[in-house]
Amino acid sequence: MKKRILAYGRLNDDQLAQLGQDFEVQAFPGLASADDPAFRAALSDAHGLIGASLAITPELLDAAPKLEAIATISVGYDNYPVEALTRRGILLCNTPDVLTETTADTGFLLIMAAARRAVELAEMVKRGDWQAGIGPEHFGSDVHGKTLGLIGFGRIGAAVARRGALGFGMKVRYAMASPKPLLEAELGAERRELDELLEESDFVCVTVPLTAETEHLIGEREFALMKPSAIFVNIARGKVVNEAALIEALEMGRIRAAGLDVFEQEPLSPESPLPHMTNVVALPHIGSATHETRTAMAQRAVDNLLLALRGEHPINLVNETARRPA
Ligand code: DGY
């Protein structure tokens, strides 16, 4: 009997057909919750899952006794219980690399938009309120030549830094990462303790993954260390930042502005003041959301799942120790 795959992510017809060559595929397009009764019922016979943005809990794993592998269409895997998966010998595969440049583009979009007040001023034009030459009350801040502080200096952090250093002549500082001599040589980047980086940077950009150690890494104390002219950008995960402290820092003018692609609660609560603040550029978690990159991510997830279910080593395996001896 063929192994069964439940596909709840956006896969194109070719990708579904590729999975279907050797496996039986049940598609759940637009699945909003793991509590969907048809999905729950199908779990009991599932060997593989492929998709994104679904909270996978140990309780859900209890309903999937045959599960061998999950291929998430994301680089982040903070919504997966990695230890529980590993204990059960379930492989978890993610999609790094293919989204690095696109996510870094989003980071730089936020740096530029927040610094030059692009959204606020575009809205002014849209309202018909552009009635005189632009004066100092609408001036923004330069980006070129400033100091860019990266919290986290993995693939995406380095790609943001490359844009800053090579494209905009920025000085690059990084924290919360092991020393990166090659990037230091390439970009003139310098490693700092987190507090020093916060004090020194004109732009602070968060790219660190969400873990128990990084949850609420940036809060009231950290915002107080930043320059009053600092612009804060988050393209990682909302929970790395204490959002209430961020809102207060923006309201009190402790920092100048923020560019945010991620939030503590997503979709953003209608009660959140963030999208209404003129010094905030808020995006709906579009880090990797381009046609090209989402197709490439889905393809990487398909390739990972096919390898995993065939007993081969997936290209991107999060929990190496879950592998069963061949
Ligand atoms: C990821 O891949 O983790 C991104 O946040 C999804 O856009």
UniProtKB/TrEMBL annotation:
<dbReference type="Pfam" id="PF02826">
    <property type="entry name" value="2-Hacid_dh_C"/>
</dbReference>
<feature type="domain" description="D-isomer specific 2-hydroxyacid dehydrogenase NAD-binding">
    <location>
        <begin position="109"/>
        <end position="287"/>
    </location>
</feature>
<dbReference type="InterPro" id="IPR006140">
    <property type="entry name" value="D-isomer_DH_NAD-bd"/>
</dbReference>
<comment type="similarity">
    <text>Belongs to the D-isomer specific 2-hydroxyacid dehydrogenase family.</text>
</comment>
<keyword id="KW-0560">Oxidoreductase</keyword>
<dbReference type="Pfam" id="PF00389">
    <property type="entry name" value="2-Hacid_dh"/>
</dbReference>
<dbReference type="InterPro" id="IPR029753">
    <property type="entry name" value="D-isomer_DH_CS"/>
</dbReference>
<dbReference type="InterPro" id="IPR036291">
    <property type="entry name" value="NAD(P)-bd_dom_sf"/>
</dbReference>
<protein>
    <submittedName>
        <fullName>D-glycerate dehydrogenase</fullName>
    </submittedName>
</protein>
<feature type="domain" description="D-isomer specific 2-hydroxyacid dehydrogenase catalytic">
    <location>
        <begin position="6"/>
        <end position="319"/>
    </location>
</feature>
<dbReference type="InterPro" id="IPR050223">
    <property type="entry name" value="D-isomer_2-hydroxyacid_DH"/>
</dbReference>
<keyword id="KW-0520">NAD</keyword>
<dbReference type="InterPro" id="IPR006139">
    <property type="entry name" value="D-isomer_2_OHA_DH_cat_dom"/>
</dbReference>
